[in-house]
Amino acid sequence: VHDGSGRCVLRGLIADRQMLEDILGTTDLDAFIADYKEADYEEFQQMVTALNDYINDGRSESFTLNGSSYKTQSDKTDLTENLNGVFSIAGAEKWTYGNHFGNYPISTVYENVYDVRESAPDKADLMKSSIVKSLEELDFLSNYAAGPEGATKRGSQFVNSTVTGYDQAVQTFAESKAIFIKNGNWTYSNIANIAPEVAERLVMLPMKLNFSDDDIHVDGLTVDQMNRSVPEFVSQYYIVNKKATEQEKKDAEDFLLWLNTSETGLDYIVNKFAFVPFNADEDTVLENPLSNDLITYKRDNCILANPFDAAPSSWGLESYGKYIMEDLFTNPDPWSEDKLNDIADECISYWKSGMDEW
Asked: With contact defined as beta carbons under 8 Å apart, do 164 and 91 qualify?
């Protein structure tokens, strides 16, 4: 028996609120966050190029989100003067984009993990356009990457673990050398170990996606919904050994009930384990601000599933992620349409052959 309340996690685009306030010259970021959540992919691209101009040239640039105008400042602050790029990307870690970014194109076709497991292999053909577009988006994002000593350009350095390994990518962000890092709420403790003051100011924003509604084959799901939502999943479960005695099973289940409902048990769940309780609501306050954001997204019904959890074994690492690392991130030139289509075909072939083995 397993219980999904073990540890709820979410992924998205993480930023330091103070960093954004300094760049935009505001002391109230809530309006920006609200407009960002409603913005489309084209507005997101304009924002990224404006932020890049601010980093490189200190230029004041205007951009629009959800119809509202924003402007970067002409002067740097003590916090923003060390910026090396817009995004900190762990290019040396296939799982950070192979698994996590790969979940977005999968979500355009499969509603949840059960949908993946119960569908015929040929359903994977519907992912073709969204896989290609996800690769096009990574082509765009990787042009604005920060490294520890300056901008990181695609090539051998982009997949060098000393420059773009997970720990180094987190450190680059925590040291205020990048505006965003795409990651999950679990990274809070890593950031807190480097820069506690930054960790306390974190905010989770949705990843903007360049899909169209024609790419989506899940009933009721739209591009607008995807663009205001974050993926949530349970990475760990409570397990009761089926070989235990009936009394031991009952005792274990009673303990889990106590752990997740009693005052003492919830104190452990929230304050000592730093988990997001399964029944968290707007009255729940957690130390991790990113986990608090999860509660907000759940309240607003802005949650995506994690069908990637049912992907064929190693699909994210040995197919989608492998091609991104070996064929794309090492290539400084724009990625050709033919190449992206070939990669999408290979990814789908790998997926279908993996499902045939079940």
From this structure: yes
Whole-number Å distance between alpha carbons of 301 and 97:
25
Residue 6 has pLDDT above 60, yes or no: no
- List pLDDT tens digits, range 125-135: 999 999 999 99
The Cβ of residue 50 has, within 10 Å, a number of other Cβ atoms equal to 21
* Tokens, residue 289: 């601000």
Q: Which contacts (CB < 8 Å, 24+ apart) does range 117-120 have?
A: 117/310, 117/358
**What are the tokens at 198?**
């930054």
243 phi, psi to nearest 5 deg: -90, -5
Using CA atoms, how far apart are residues 181 and 194, in angstroms rounded to an integer?
15
pLDDT digits (tens, 9 = 90+) for 148-178: 999 999 999 999 999 999 999 999 999 999 9
Q: What is the pTM of this model?
A: 0.91
In three state form, how does the secondary structure of the chain look?
CEEEEEEEEEEEEEEEHHHHHHHHCCCCCHHHHHHHHHCCHHHHHHHHHHHHHHHHHCCCCEEEECCEEEECCCCCCCCCCCCCEEEECCCCCHHHHHCCCCHHHHHCCCCCHHHHHHCCHHHHHHHHHHHHHHHHHHHHHHHHEECCCCECCCCHHHHCHHHHCHHHHHHHHHCCCEEEEEEEHHHHHHHHHHCHHHHCCEEEECCCCCCCHHHCCCCCCCHHHHHCCEEEEEEEEEECCCCCCHHHHHHHHHHHHHHHHCHHHHHHHHHHCCCCCCCCCCCCCCCCHHHHHHHHHHHCCCEECCHHHHCCCCHHHHHHHHHHHHHHCCCCCCCCHHHHHHHHHHHHHHHHHHHHCC
Q: Whole-angstrom Cα distance, residue 235 to residue 275?
A: 11
Q: How far apart are the first and last CA of the chain?
A: 22
How far is CA 4 from each of CA 44, 61, 167, 258, rounded to the nearest angstrom? 34, 45, 28, 15
Express each pLDDT in 35-52 by its tens digit. 999 999 999 999 999 999
